[in-house]
Specification:
The protein is an alpha/beta fold. The chain has eleven helices and four strands, in the order ααααβαβαβαβαααα. It folds into three domains: 64 residues; 53 residues; 139 residues, Dna Topoisomerase Vi A Subunit, Chain: A, domain 2, CATH 3.40.1360. Strands 2-1-3-4 form a four-stranded parallel sheet, with helices on both faces.
């Protein structure tokens, strides 16, 4: 199979993937292609995918908006054409505190900023806080979390990260550093787990020998590592949603939503009267 034919095949499969799930990052597309055995798992192939996606978007084969770059987003200044438009924004923005009627509190912590948009989309309706660490969280972030959690007795952290030496060690590190501030929340790693690797036949990578935690990790799990990006998008979304719903009193949440909707309408009537009355 010639180079041109391989590229066409790559773009064809990528287009099928993106029709079902978009937007996706380049890395997510790459791992989906690896899992379908369209390409090998190598740095050179990753660059080939990246280049092919640029060409496919330039020639219109794949829409630009189907590939997301969540690390490079413009920070817009909010503006409105008139007060009526602002009133609609206020209505949409109003959220009643869902935690006031919940038995406990939890947050989702994410290792990778590139996946934050996926998490935000799922978490927004539930009012769940997303904390993005970009690797190991700094001490300032840990201190701020300890202030939010108090002693942590009714708090939970649901952690999503890579299955590799650092990804597994981050749970230990989080617990150790939160404990320093006398904060003791429950910490659960939700993905990627060893069971995920087997169940979904996730494309592996080799562990980084330069990582000081590699020896212990390899001894326990073998010389295999899997990025969170490799988890199929529908599986990841479902996992986030399942964990959230399992940790919330859904009956109480639905009552909060119902009250919130009534208060939104009340707020809009109030704003409409203010704008109309000059």
């Amino acid at each position: 199979m010639g180079k041109h034919t391989k590229t066409l095949r790559l773009i064809e499969v990528t287009s099928d993937i993106l029709v079902a799930h978009h937007p996706m990052t380049v890395r997510q597309v790459y791992y989906q292609l690896v899992s379908r055995q369209v390409i090998e798992n190598s740095r050179g192939q990753y660059q080939a995918v990246s280049n092919a996606l640029v060409d496919a978007r330039k020639d219109g084969t794949i829409p630009w908006k189907w590939i997301g770059d969540r690390l490079r987003r413009p920070r817009h200044v909010s503006m409105w054409r008139d007060l009526a438009g602002f009133g609609e924004t206020v209505k949409r923005a109003y959220r009643r505190d869902v935690w006031a009627d919940q038995p406990g509190y939890f947050e989702i912590w994410l290792e990778k900023d590139a996946l934050s948009g996926i998490f935000e989309d799922v978490l927004k309706p539930y009012g769940v806080t997303l904390n993005v660490g970009r690797g190991y969280d700094g001490w300032s972030s840990i201190h701020a979390a300890a202030n939010r959690f108090g002693d942590g007795s009714d708090a939970t952290i649901l952690y999503f990260g890579d299955f590799d030496p650092s990804g597994e060690d981050m749970v230990r590190s989080l617990e150790e550093r939160l404990n320093y501030f006398d904060c003791h929340p429950e910490i659960t790693k939700c993905a990627v787990t060893p069971a995920d690797v087997t169940r979904y036949d996730l494309p592996p990578d080799f562990t980084k020998r330069t990582d000081t935690r590699s020896a212990a990790f390899v001894a326990q799990y073998g010389d295999v590592a899997v990025e969170l990006d490799a988890l199929p998008l529908d599986v990841l979304r479902a996992r986030i949603r399942e964990e959230v719903r399992a940790h919330m009193d859904m009956s109480a949440l639905e009552k909060t939503w119902k009250t919130e909707e009534g208060e939104r309408e009340q707020l809009l009537r109030l704003l409409s009267g203010t704008v109309g009355g000059g």
